[in-house]
Design brief:
Elements: E1 3-7, E2 18-21, E3 43-44, H1 52-60, H2 64-78, H3 81-93, E4 99-103, H4 112-122
Length: 128
């Protein structure tokens, strides 16, 4: 059993399980009933997405320093009780079920999902 970190909208892997969308906004122009069918997500989980203000920092990060500022702010948001508890739950579930979490960004290394991977691994999650 594992968590996969995925790009939303990418084809699903065999046995991937439920896909959680850890994004601030649903996909534009896609009817809600098509989210899962079009491989975006089965469940929207914005609690693990960066806030709108922090997301702007990440999208605009062109330098290592700007990315580090984004990463620091995102980690601080994930330390809030509700987010932290959600990460703990996902880490525990990773030992008993297959599921995935993801975002739309093309490059995982410049996306909050790379930080989400680190946060989950630090909690003992089984991450593929």
């Amino acid at each position: 059993m594992t968590i996969r970190i995925v790009r939303l909208g990418s084809p699903r892997a065999a046995g991937e399980g439920t896909r959680l969308g850890t994004v601030r906004r649903p996909p534009r122009g896609v009817p809600k009933q098509d989210f899962a069918r079009r491989d975006f997500y089965d469940v929207w989980f914005p609690l693990l997405a960066p806030s709108a203000v922090t997301m702007k920092l990440g999208l605009g990060a062109g330098t290592a320093s700007q990315w580090n500022t984004f990463a620091r702010k995102y980690r601080a948001e994930m330390a809030a009780p509700a987010s932290s508890q959600s990460l703990d739950v996902l880490a525990a579930l990773s030992h008993h079920a297959n599921f995935s979490v993801g975002c739309y960004c093309e490059n995982e290394q410049r996306c909050h999902r790379s930080l989400l991977r680190e946060l989950l691994e630090a909690r003992g999650a089984k991450v593929e």
